[in-house]
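Posting here for the record, re: S-adenosylmethionine.
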Amino acid sequence: MAIPTRPSMPTSITGLNWLTTDDGSRTLHDQRLNESYHSGCGALAESWLVYVLNSGVAERLRGGQATRVLEYGLGTGTSFLLTAALAEMHGVDLLYVGIENNLLPAEVVADLELLHAIKNFHADQLWRERFQDVRFQRSLSLLQEGWVSVLQQACGSLSSTELVQVAPHTRLVLLQQDACTLDTSLLRTVLDFEPLGGIHAVYFDPFSPEVNPNLWQPRVLQNAYSWLEPGGSFTSYCVKSSVRKDLERIGYLVRRVPGPTGGKRQVLLARKPSSPDSQAT
Ligand SMILES: C[S@@+](CC[C@H](N)C(=O)[O-])C[C@H]1O[C@@H](n2cnc3c(N)ncnc32)[C@H](O)[C@@H]1O
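Prediction output follows.
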């Protein structure tokens, strides 16, 4: 099937363009890698379903449970903003750790227009109700400003780590590092002060294994596993068989679940067992 041509717009970075995806939200397309930051079928729908919902994070926040998320590939911040808007709306504390080795300039991210996409989202009734909630929209608007200002002030150098209070309930640990050779000392320090320690959900969203094989090495997947609480989730858009086998070898309970309407047929939901003898369901 031919790939549809989608509206695109240049950014201030040569070879990096905004693409309007099929649900009206924007993603970036990197011409050099020939990779997009999200599925062209819907950046918003993908981020919401694959990460915020499938990971169980939306349910935790709705239930008032303080939550810690670790994202590999912070990119435009779409998954971060959606997760944080839920946390703010429910008044629940969120610690969000984002690993990124190529932080986008603030002036590029200022054109993400996620709130605009949320307001005009019409693909799914259930999500639309949440997206139309004024408290959600208000939180998102504040967070968007906060996120752009984090990028404006971020130290530009690789290997830096920062802890920023982005909104009343949202702390962001920004690890500007190569995820393959991660220095986790700041993360360790922060988590040591948390009542329970580990991470509840890993959003694994680097570029594809074809373009970015280093990030999909068992060593990196194992690292993510070691940060997870028992029962914690590991979600990704990628269901490649070799990746699923590596995850199973590490000890994850791996499932394929339906992807967003119009997008990938299946996406990945893996869990760290809650007890040593847990079985996949
Ligand atoms: C698919 S995009 C992530 C999209 C992002 N989740 C969002 O909502 O916009 C992949 C991201 O992974 C980052 N990345 C790629 N290789 C990396 C590495 N070795 N270490 C850290 N980040 C990496 C890229 O710079 C890019 O921002």
